[in-house]
């Protein structure tokens, strides 16, 4: 199970963004003592952290690596800061666009990930649960499934059109 640290320049956030990726690509055949070939592109879970957390929380605080390996699933864990994974009226703060479109697009270019909607999942905890449900619905053409774990509910009084943007 490869754990990969990626830093890339995000167009939506206009800065370098850290992302951790779990990729079940380094399996070794004990018969040939060589890496097993990847037979197909991986189903992918985009996993969002909660408020006051960061992109390393899932790896350091759960057994996500073991679970991903058992399920032969790639897991992408981005840094969402504390922005609830929604777009802002401020420039360079389009967290909805970042997680709903850009991140999926760039990770599919970087890694052998399926481009099928039914193979693409989004989930999160608390703030990340809100972001997963919101973006799973908004970008339903991208995500086949959305999962909210103890999801937060955030009503944006400052800009009621935030969920539409």
Q: What's the overall geometry? A: globular
Q: List SSEs in N-to-C order.
A: EEEEEHHEHEHE
In which range does the helix fraction lie?
10-25%
Note the gap between the termini.
37 Å
Which strand order spans the largest sheet, edge to edge or round the barrel? Answer: 1-2-6-5-7-8
Largest sheet: 6 strands, mixed
Mean pLDDT, to the nearest integer, reads: 91
Query: Would you report the number of β strands?
Result: 8
Label the structural class: alpha/beta
**Rg over alpha carbons:** 16 Å
Keywords, separated by commas or semicolons:
165 residues, alpha/beta, 6-stranded mixed β-sheet, two-stranded antiparallel ribbon, 4 helices, 27% strand, globular
Compact summary:
The chain is α/β, with parallel strands linked by helices. It contains four helices and eight strands; from the N terminus they run βββββααβαβαβ.
How would you characterize the overall build of this protein?
The protein is of the alpha/beta class and 165 residues long. Helices cover 25% and strands 27% of the residues. It contains four helices and eight strands. The chain has helices at 57-61, 64-71, 95-110, 127-138; strands at 2-10, 15-23, 28-29, 34-35, 43-48, 73-78, 120-125, 145-149. The strands form two sheets. A six-stranded mixed sheet has the order 1-2-6-5-7-8, sandwiched between helices. Strand 3 (28-29) and strand 4 (34-35) form a beta hairpin. The longest helix is centred in the middle third of the chain and has 16 residues, at 95-110. It starts with a strand and ends in a 16-residue tail after the last strand. The model has no long low-confidence stretch (mean pLDDT 91).
